[in-house]
Amino acid sequence: MWNKIVTWWNSTMRDRPYAPGRQIDRYLITKVLGTGSYGIAYLAKDLTDGSDVVLKQVKPSLRLSPKGEAMQAYEQKVLSTLSHPQIPRWLHSFTYRKDSFLVMTFIDGPTLEEALFDQMITVDEYSAARLMKKIAEIVAHLHEHRLIHRDVRIPNVIWHNDEPYLIDFGLARFLGDSPTYSAEALSDYHSEKQLKREVAPSSDLFALGHFFLFLLYSSYTPDENASEQSWEQELSLSPAIHAMIRRLLQLDPPYHTVKQFLCDLEDYLRESNHSNIRPWSQ
Ligand SMILES: Nc1ncnc2c1ncn2[C@@H]1O[C@H](COP(=O)(O)OP(=O)(O)OP(=O)(O)O)[C@@H](O)[C@H]1O
């Protein structure tokens, strides 16, 4: 019972976001973007230059836990290490009335999850491969900096100016760093989660396999009367794409690097010789 009361108190009172219209330091909150595992994200205006930025606040209930400030400090370290046009830039960090904030550039646009599920955008195989190439190139850039994202999923890619942007570096780790902050070990997780959370290129490659499937399923129409089958039975894929996904999902000898996957994607795109180069259709 006590635990339930603490959870209720934390979610309704302690972790209640600041309301739009509130000024924090030199930032005016315009919207609450969402509450994640360790923080609350806001869209805000920097009053010094009028630019839109994202503020991430450590949840007050996590202030003194290993999940709070340490996770934010790590995200700051990650973002400030990177300099890529399709990744948010770290701008500033500060403390306001005991709350820790991290400020980063705002990427304006729908996430791929919103585009596929809310806007019902569909992607054919060729367009999905083109999009995967752009996303894999960002992931390859991270790996060149010894960084594993560990959360490459459609809600973490924003579509802006006809390009994908990768966000949410809350789970990212440099090679050699511990996969968790707390005492729990990776081996406590079930096997698929272990694969996704390993601090190794294989975890991002595995995630890219699921990412690819999400894109390809956007143009799949289920047969209401048929029972659910595996992706290999439901999707009609070209042999090249089918083989790439099997390797990403580790069903066949896996790729060791994102570059190997990129080579296969480039071969496929060259050989497909497609004239319709719209990224997707509605
Ligand atoms: N730089 C950014 N530009 C635009 N939107 C962003 C940016 N960073 C985060 N968001 C949006 O803010 C919301 C909250 O993001 P955040 O990264 O805090 O957490 P999350 O993905 O909900 O959870 P978690 O941190 O547990 O993965 C998401 O909807 C995300 O799309």
From TrEMBL:
Keywords: ATP-binding, Kinase, Nucleotide-binding, Serine/threonine-protein kinase, Transferase. SUPFAM superfamilies: Protein kinase-like (PK-like). InterPro entries: Atg1-like, Kinase-like_dom_sf, Prot_kinase_dom, Protein_kinase_ATP_BS, Tyr_kinase_cat_dom. ATP binds at residue 56. One of its GO terms (cellular component) is membrane. One of its GO terms (molecular function) is protein serine/threonine kinase activity. Residues 27-269 form the Protein kinase domain. This is Serine/threonine protein kinase. It comes from Brevibacillus centrosporus.
